[in-house]
Amino acid sequence: MQLIVSSTQLLRQLQTLGGVLSNSNTLPILDHFLFELAPGELVMTASDLETTMSSKMEVRTEDTGAIAVPARMLLDILKAFPDIPLTIKVDPSTYAVELTSDAGKYKLTGANGDEFPQSPELEGATGVDMKAGTLVSAINRTLFAAGSDDLRPVMSGLFFEMYSDNVRFVATDAHRLVRYARTDASAPETASFIVPKKPLNLLKNAAASADAVNISFTESNACFTFDDVTILCRLIEGKYPNYEAVIPKDNPNRMTINRSAFLQAIRRAAIFANKTTHQVRLRIAGSELTVSAEDLDFANEATEHLACSYHGEDMEIGFNSKFLVDMLNNLSAEEVNLELSAPNRAGIIRPSEPEEPGEDVLMLVMPVMLNG
After folding, report:
1. How many CA atoms lie within 13 A of 366 on its CB side?
2. 211 and 189 in a common domain
3. How many domains does the chain have?
4. Quick one: DSSP state of residue 21?
5. On the CB side of 175, how many CA atoms lie within 13 Å of its CA?
6. Cβ(16)–Cβ(205) under 8 Å?
7. Other Cβ atoms within 10 Å of 355 Cβ, number
8. pLDDT score for 134
9. Are 158 and 195 contacting, i.e. CB atoms less than 8 angstroms apart?
10. Helix (H) or strand (E) holding 168
11. What phi and psi, each to the nearest 5 degrees, are found at residue 320?
12. Per-residue confidence (pLDDT) for residue 314, from 0 to 100
């Protein structure tokens, strides 16, 4: 079994798949890439049993067959090559893999490709096509707010809600929540499912230059297909919390402020905040916002004044500065609105203007009780 391929092209494809590899695989075969040859093409696969990613590329070969190649070693040797044609020969009887370049020969021992776990077939799956840019934007805007608590696995992923007139993506860790909706995307039937973080991180990096992504899903699995790449993952089981119930509907106090100035002020004040609570205090009165933080244990404090546009009663409210920084960082609008109802109710951050047509972003952050 033999193929000829560009070392740089092969490395680029395998580095993308490398994100699937886990350091604590239960099966030794999962430390390998599966190579499947057919005339003129090579399909490469990596899996950790929960997530499987495959990529296809053109190569020079007339052979058919499969071999599992040690992933880390192959990546290391490919990184050490300049851009050269490589000949890869496989002995199916011993699973020996030989790489030949102009400079020399390199031998490594592979494994039986038949031992590599088979991907589940998605029988009776529902399919939806979506612009890749829409999906990548949704992941970038939301995934940072997903939880990492093993005791609440449903909150550790991204909640997809499909409707006939819009699609929504929701992430929350119970302290903050992001809902990203698109009215320019839709599904043939109403459906919802929870996708883990890992396949979504792989997806947003690999699909950045794609045009469209096909999403097919069953009750237990989802599959994302674009260009010559397929990402298949097991869905998180369980019922997603009723997130609509925690979004305050009546927020009479609204501040509009320059996003960048607000972000920088919080970043500076946070340096002086208590290292346990990370609390910053926002006092809004008239057309002025005062951002302050203090750490009483070390007598550290900071105060900044910013111009803003504000409609509502004078208000003082505390937030975790890390959450505010994350949210403002994941928006790119010039101005943002902060909507408030009371010092003990959640605050809502939205871009003043949609950043893309058909987009609706809502970020919710729970307040921190002010001390003194």
Report:
1. 11
2. yes
3. 3
4. -
5. 18
6. yes
7. 13
8. 94
9. yes
10. strand 167-172
11. -75, 120
12. 96
Residue pLDDT, tens place only, 238-289: 999 999 999 999 999 999 999 999 999 999 999 999 999 999 999 999 999 9
Residue 135 lies in a domain: yes
| 370 within some domain | no
CA gap 209, 213 in Å, rounded: 11
Range of the domain at 38: 2-115
Residue 121 lies in a domain: no
d(CA 68, CA 44): 9
Q: Is the pTM of this model over 0.70?
A: yes
Give CA 211 to chain center in angstroms. 18
The confidence score (pLDDT) of residue 370 equals 79
| Domain end point (choices 244, 266, 295) | 244
Q: What is the pLDDT of residue 149?
A: 86
* Tokens 């937030």 sit on residue: 319
Residues of the chain with pLDDT under 70: 371-372
Q: What is the pLDDT of residue 238?
A: 95
Q: What is the CATH number of the domain that holds 253?
A: 3.10.150.10
Q: Report whether 246 contacts 174 (CB < 8 A).
A: no
Nearest to 135 by CA among 194, 173, 177, 185: 185
CA of 6: how far to CAs of 12, 13, 37, 338, 361, in Å?
A: 10, 11, 16, 52, 43
